[in-house]
Amino acid sequence: DPNAPVLEIVSVYIPKKDGTGISQIMDGVDTITPEALFQIMTNEGLDMSDVEVKSWKTADKTGTLELTSLKDKSHKMQVCLINTFTENYGLDAVTIIADGETLVTNGEYESKFKKVE
Question: How many C-beta atoms lie closer than 10 Å to residue 33's C-beta?
Answer without folding.
Answer: 15
